[in-house]
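Q: What structure does this chain adopt?
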Amino acid sequence: MSVMLYRQGKGTRVWGKEYKTVIVRDDEVSEHLNQGWHKHPDEVKAEKPEQQPIKRTRKTKAESDESDD
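A:
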């Protein structure tokens, strides 16, 4: 079986925040935890306290190129 681990950084978006992720075998989990990885996204501490969750915005429709001549 495998486990997904999380770390601060750019990569995968989880609950509005971005994390580096890695999937490892069960026998490799403790090694990665010692290297700073976490089992749950809530355990990851933000490097910058002012970091805000990433907000998604809707794309606006492109204006038509047709003229009303």
